[in-house]
Amino acid sequence: MSLRSSLAILTLSTRETRTMQAPNFWQTDGLLPRLFSPAAWAYGIGVDLRRILAGDPSRLRVPIICVGNIVAGGAGKTPVARDLGARLCDKGKKPHFLTRGYGGLERGPLRVEVTGHSAVDVGDEALLLARLCPTWVAADRLAGCRAAVDDGAEVIVMDDGFQNPSVCKDVSLLVVDGEYGLGNQRLIPAGPMRERTADALKRADAVVVIGDDETGFRSHAENAGIPCLRADMKPREPAKVFAVKPIIAFTGIGRPEKFFRTLRGIGCDVRDTHPYPDHFPFRNGEIKRLKEEARRNDAVLVTTEKDAARIDPTARDGIEVLTITLQWEDEAALDDMLRTALN
């Protein structure tokens, strides 16, 4: 990434960094992170002031489970939130999801209608969540929680919102990508960190590491006396579904290389890959170009559920979708945590 492109990050809020590809220098330390250190220091002061000025968080009359992270970009929050929602339904509860609606125009509070809203309206994550349980989009998280409670929610699962100080959470889960970890561990814009690790761990009830803990984040949790759960993302479909023809894969998620590696891991013949910025708004012209490439190579187009939600329904024909599920290392520990939240 050029210096000119990097300087643009100074003008981005945390929300906006999710709609672009994370710069490579966020993964390692070096000249650019040091150049951005003054801005990162100012960002940290802003984070502290926001929490101080917010006052005491409001407590709702239903349990609040927050699934968040401390880096900008994908860590696996939405799959974890969906998994928890499904488990709560199995326990006979009536969970509602609450999300900011990143990438959408609506500020809410708004209950998402799968057939009535698009990713342009509410973002891709809200559409995925709404297929499972009632889902609310709200820039004002407290207002969103109150709307969900008034609508009959017995428990609220927040997809993101770990840094939001307006709502008192009964259980806060900190999701970490085991491969990426915390990048260079510097605050935005010098690195991917939304807040300091020590501050985040003080408010976390447990850490969820997705995949192998290659960066050693588990030790941070253990040193802080916080339980650490681990889960793997596994394809729901058998490999033979996608192994019939060569594949051209495309995605606009936080860590596109993970998707491509997953396809190869289940035996797919991946001929070409197209990574896009996180939450990339696919236009019909772009999809047409990808389909033409697949046709020329006698290949199949494959993408993720999140990406499919951002494609016009009229353009989805001929595109296969790989869905994933979470496989927990210790489901008993997870169920114990849910019981704690519900009691």
Strand content: 15-25%
N-to-C SSE series? HHHHEHEEHHEHEEHEHEEHEHEHEEH
Main sheet properties: 9 strands, mixed
Strand order of the largest sheet: 3-4-2-5-1-6-7-8-13
Helical run tally: 14
Q: Which term fits the overall shape?
A: globular
Structural class: alpha/beta
Give the C-alpha Rg: 20 Å
Count the beta strands: 13
Low-pLDDT sequence parts: 1-19
What percent of residues adopt helix (DSSP H or I)? 25-40%
Instruction: Report how far apart the termini are.
Output: 49 Å
Task: Provide the residue-averaged pLDDT.
Answer: 88
Can you walk me through this structure?
With 343 residues, the chain is of the alpha/beta class. The protein has 14 helices and 13 strands. The chain has helices at residues 3-7, 14-17, 31-35, 37-54, 77-90, 119-122, 124-130, 141-150, 197-203, 217-223, 256-265, 284-296, 305-308, 331-342; strands spanning 64-68, 95-99, 110-111, 135-137, 155-159, 171-177, 206-210, 228-235, 247-251, 270-275, 300-304, 319-322, 324-328. A 9-stranded mixed sheet has the order 3-4-2-5-1-6-7-8-13, with helices on both faces. It has a 4-stranded parallel sheet with strand order 10-9-11-12. β11, α13 and β12 (319-322) form a beta-alpha-beta unit. The longest helix has 18 residues, at 37-54. It is globular, with a radius of gyration of 20 Å. The N and C termini lie far apart (49 Å). The model is unreliable at 1-19 (pLDDT under 50).
List the helices and strands and how they pair.
Blueprint: H1 3-7, H2 14-17, H3 31-35, H4 37-54, E1 64-68, H5 77-90, E2 95-99, E3 110-111, H6 119-122, H7 124-130, E4 135-137, H8 141-150, E5 155-159, E6 171-177, H9 197-203, E7 206-210, H10 217-223, E8 228-235, E9 247-251, H11 256-265, E10 270-275, H12 284-296, E11 300-304, H13 305-308, E12 319-322, E13 324-328, H14 331-342
